[in-house]
Input
Amino acid sequence: MNPAIVHCLRAATQVPEQPAVADWWPRWSDGAARAPAPAEMAVLGGFDADRVGWAFASGYQAALHALLPVLPRDRIAAFCVTEDGGNRPRDIRTRFTPCPDGSLTIHGAKRWTTLGPAGSVLLVVGALPPEGPDERPRLKVARVDAKAPGVQLLPMPATRFVPEVPHARVQLDEVRVESGAVLPGDGYEACVKPFRSIEDLHVTLAVLAYLMREARQRGWPVAFAERVCGAMVLLAGLAGEAADAPAMHVALAGALALSHGLYDEAAALWAREGDTAAAQRWARDAALFAVGASARQQRTQRAWERLSA
Output
């Protein structure tokens, strides 16, 4: 059994109130230092969270570490993809310009960067010039220090759900990075595209771990906790699978459907808690679970098509 999941079944359930990033981050960082793999980071972080917002943030950080294991565990990372036009390859206007000395300059702007105001490591998606007259720009991902000259992090308004988790608009004005800061491979195929599945998996793991702690602390039915545990074990097992495998996407769709059913059960259990702050937060934040539903459905459909080809 995954040790982090066992921890959720045995550990003390009292956690301190965490109204802001500064309250959540030290607990996540401490758990990440003890976790052997990103799935465990998500579970431990979710269990230590006092609300859905920090469970989400824990899963998001764990997902970035699953995507890029070399990320430091003591710094908040932020994936800078979305621009004013969207997050598809054709929407990316941020440009990487090679310099004679082998370095690059980055110019562009990102919006709705999760944890951007608190981030210290930015993973910026941009385009290198095309290699030929008939070629398209090549998307790449570069690691950028948030304090580098030319970087501005501009906080955006709080969202209507999980408002504690900050977002930022990131302005990059001729930001210089060394060539070694650019990650290998195609930025979209190697990072942006697989991250959607990796994020879904790790965020769900973290939210389920949060629900496990709440269920134990509040004396919710044991049968509910058992189903949460089963879904966590399933997701933790999928964490070791290739994120681009169609069979993995089909299994992930099933695991997410089971998890969303548990969210529905949890809503009824929260309703019994009365008008508490925790119950109010759950009702407010439940909209998070529907974000990306259409993209997940399309991903699963494509997976079935690939399996049937």
